[in-house]
From TrEMBL:
<dbReference type="InterPro" id="IPR023198">
    <property type="entry name" value="PGP-like_dom2"/>
</dbReference>
<dbReference type="InterPro" id="IPR023214">
    <property type="entry name" value="HAD_sf"/>
</dbReference>
<dbReference type="InterPro" id="IPR036412">
    <property type="entry name" value="HAD-like_sf"/>
</dbReference>
<dbReference type="InterPro" id="IPR041492">
    <property type="entry name" value="HAD_2"/>
</dbReference>
<dbReference type="InterPro" id="IPR050155">
    <property type="entry name" value="HAD-like_hydrolase_sf"/>
</dbReference>
<dbReference type="Pfam" id="PF13419">
    <property type="entry name" value="HAD_2"/>
</dbReference>
<protein>
    <submittedName>
        <fullName>HAD hydrolase-like protein</fullName>
    </submittedName>
</protein>
Length: 222
């Protein structure tokens, strides 16, 4: 099961520009990408409270979310797929194993973008966020995603780019490999205990080793 933003989609430039749009609106100095990686955590609301230096009530949190996504949406067309995508996804599909996509980005925007990149047919299921505001934990989202496919969590391997991906996998009983291409430092990722890769290709190499070791002859895996 793949994460999208920061994992399959390389959108780091759009992300930091959108974050700095929020900072400018609240009179805070701009952040570099490394600054953002150092502070980023979930729930994202607490991260913004840290960088903006104030507690965000519901009204201000809605404003932050809108400022961010308005700018992110403008810059999204400049984002590209991660290196080795879709090649590695096609290779995975050729083995007869399935793969799905689960994102904390808005479902209504995720579906057409995945289609635009020509990836839709590679996934057994695609789920984005149905809520109007993002930033919460991925755990319940992951549990529903697996239930909808009638998958046993023990037969699933999650590939994502943030600590929350690992925590969600651990919470439901799935395995996880993290890639260091997104919004969190490698040190933070390694602290979860999950294997950490620098690329999609390396992540799938680790994944293959994990499957050979732990899943053996089990039937359906993700």
């Amino acid at each position: 099961m793949w994460d999208w933003n920061g994992t399959l989609l390389h959108d780091n430039d759009a992300v930091i520009a959108a974050v700095n749009q929020v900072c400018a609106a609240y009179g805070r100095p701009e952040l570099t990408w490394e600054n953002w990686r150092e502070v980023y955590a979930r729930p994202v609301r607490t991260t913004y409270e840290q960088i903006l230096g104030q507690v965000l009530d519901d009204q201000n949190w809605a404003r932050v979310d809108k400022l961010y996504h308005d700018q992110y949406d403008v810059l999204l067309p400049t984002s590209k797929l991660a290196a080795d995508v879709p090649g590695q996804l096609l290779e995975w599909a050729s083995t007869g194993r399935t793969q799905s996509l689960l994102s904390m980005w808005f479902h209504r925007q995720l579906i057409p973008l995945v289609e635009e990149f020509g990836l839709t047919g590679l996934f057994s299921r695609i789920d984005g966020l149905a809520a109007e505001l993002g930033g919460e934990s991925k755990t319940e989202h992951l549990a529903r995603h697996l239930e909808a496919q009638e998958l046993r969590p023990a037969d699933v391997l999650v590939i994502g780019d943030v600590v929350d991906d690992a925590l969600a996998a651990q919470a439901v009983g799935a395995q996880c490999v993290l890639v260091s291409t997104g919004a969190m430092t490698k040190a933070a990722l390694k602290a979860t205990g999950a294997p950490v890769a620098d690329t999609i290709t390396e992540a799938l190499r680790i994944t293959g080793t994990a499957l050979d070791r732990d899943f053996g002859a089990r039937g359906r895996t993700e």
